[in-house]
Design a protein that fits this description.
With about 450 residues, this protein is of the alpha+beta class. The chain folds into three domains: about 5-140, Beta Polymerase, domain 2, CATH 3.30.460; about 150-285, Four Helix Bundle (Hemerythrin (Met), subunit A) (Up-down Bundle); about 295-435, 3-Layer(aba) Sandwich (Aminopeptidase). Helices cover about 40% and strands about 20% of the residues. The chain has helices at about 5-15, 55, 75-80, 110-120, 150-175, 175-205, 225-230, 240-265, 270-285, 305-315, 325-335, 375-385, 400-410, and strands at about 20-25, 45-50, 70, 90-95, 100-110, 125-130, 295, 340-345, 350-360, 360-365, 390-395, 410-420, 430-435. The strands form two sheets. Strands 7-8-9-10-11-13-12 form a seven-stranded mixed sheet, with helices on both faces. It has a six-stranded mixed sheet with strand order 3-4-5-2-1-6. A hairpin with a 4-residue loop joins strand 4 (about 90-95) and strand 5.
């Protein structure tokens, strides 16, 4: 592989020996002192020419740069595809050479080149035969530095990110992987990278560039943060995309809050929370759902709230059992919640109920008193049914409302038995009830939450 000096000598010598070429300048990463140096850096070269037609007519003149593996003619391709192409002022040859070097070479007229130079400060003049080029300052990537956002720009970035999750969620629920991946990478991720760039800007006084698509993020972030970013790039299955999206949401939320604090801008916590809530509920939604069910997995931060619902609900619906029994079990139940499979009903007004289930055994559905008979219990039951082919439970015979609810949901009484609390209080009779998915006669088998009967 020819080294940089050999390539630069060839590039300049070729221009010096051709009267049609009046000057040479270079742009791109090789002019940027902040860009990492490696073997894959292109030679972004412009030959300033008197005319382009003779070069285009006889393409053999580019053979001087060495054997080519393949190349692209961007302006010619653009014309074929119907784009505006001005061959008289600009014509390019992108060449991958057999020795490993790559040259992105363009022919441009003087007038076109001067306009180009004024808009690209990553520019170094290599040859000016006629002293016709304007004087340009030292090459710098300052035009590409992270810009401090206005409060409006910050707010719009946050809003766009959280709004787009709606499209991501429905695309994944439908099983439309190509759509979901395009949404993730072309629309959601740019907002994600933008927010991270502002985070870096705050810590570098907005004096650096993260490169195209954030390729230089690793220069400014800890390995821990980079590892989290890498987790937002999924493998090729829907569950992996879901998990990558959740990771992106968590990271975006944390970084956006820090950026807001650093810039003195308000972060819309309610918008972020509601958007994530809707996404979490979409993830749990059965593939054959006929309506949106606002049910999601329990989080550690929910435990105090749902334990309170458990206690109040049991005391209110089991007046035939001493209140002390429920209060005595409160701490034990609360601790067990952390290890349980729990689904929470939550809308924009808060948490209204939950269901605990483990390997097909339904420990119970608990709903706030004021939210009963409003579809909360039904929604929780629908989610549980979507996870298992067979569900069994125990319910006190005297809890007639609960028995009626379960029977309405398709449960049948398998047997009646006595329940004797471990605290020595008097026992109560209870029903064992069973529900089985229609057409299924197997033992209870959990449906993986990742697949969840999605289309």
């Amino acid at each position: 592989m020819r080294n940089e000096k050999e390539m630069m000598d060839l590039i300049i010598r070729t221009a010096e020996n051709d009267e049609r070429i009046r000057g040479v300048y270079m742009s791109g990463s090789r002019t940027n002192k902040n860009a990492p140096k490696d073997i894959f850096q292109d030679y972004d070269i412009v030959y300033v020419v008197t005319e382009t037609a003779s070069f285009i007519e006889d393409e053999s003149w580019i053979d001087v740069f060495g054997e080519r593996l393949y190349m692209q003619l961007p302006e010619k391709m653009g014309k074929i595809l119907g784009y505006d192409s001005n061959f008289d002022n600009c014509y390019g040859y992108l060449m991958q050479l057999a020795d490993g070097n790559r040259i992105d070479l363009h022919l441009q007229t003087l007038e076109y080149s001067i306009r180009d130079m004024k808009h690209d400060r990553l520019c170094i003049i290599l040859l000016d035969k006629d002293k016709a080029f304007p004087e340009i300052p030292p090459a710098t990537d300052q035009d590409h530095w992270i810009k401090r956002p206005s409060e409006e720009e910050y707010s719009c970035c946050c809003n766009e990110f959280w709004w787009l999750l709606n499209n991501m969620g429905k695309g994944l629920w439908r099983g439309e992987m190509p759509y979901a991946m395009d949404m993730l990478n072309f629309y959601v991720r740019p907002q994600f990278i933008k927010m991270i760039s502002w985070y870096i800007g705050i810590h570098t006084y907005f004096s650096c560039s993260i490169g195209k698509s954030g390729k230089y993020l690793y220069k400014y972030l800890s390995q821990d943060k980079m590892d989290r970013i890498y987790l937002t790039y999924p493998t090729g299955n829907i569950e992996a995309v879901w998990q990558s999206l959740f990771e992106m949401c968590d990271f975006f939320d944390a970084v956006a809050k820090e950026v807001g604090r650093g810039l003195g801008y308000a972060y819309n916590d309610k918008e972020a929370y509601n958007s994530r809530l809707f996404l979490d509920c979409t993830y749990e939604l059965p593939g054959d759902a006929k309506e949106i069910l606002m049910v999601r997995r329990m989080k550690a931060t929910d435990v105090e709230e749902i334990a309170r619902i458990w206690l109040e609900s049991n005391i209110e619906t089991h007046d035939f059992i001493p209140e002390a029994y429920w209060r005595g079990n409160y701490e034990n139940v609360k601790n067990r919640l952390y290890e349980s499979e729990v689904y929470v009903y939550e809308d924009h007004k808060g948490i209204h109920g939950f269901a605990g289930i483990n390997k097909g055994y339904l420990a119970g559905i608990f709903v706030k008193k004021e939210m009963r008979s409003k579809g909360v219990g039904k929604a929780l039951m629908d989610i549980c049914k979507s996870k298992y082919f067979r569900i069994n439970l125990h319910v006190y015979c005297m809890n007639k409302k609960a028995v009626k609810f379960y029977m309405k949901e398709g449960f049948v009484i398998n047997k009646k038995q006595m329940n004797y609390p471990t605290d020595g209080t008097a026992g109560c009779s209870e029903f064992e009830m069973i529900w089985q998915k229609e057409g299924n006669s197997t033992n209870p088998v959990a449906i993986n939450g990742a697949e969840n009967e999605r289309k």
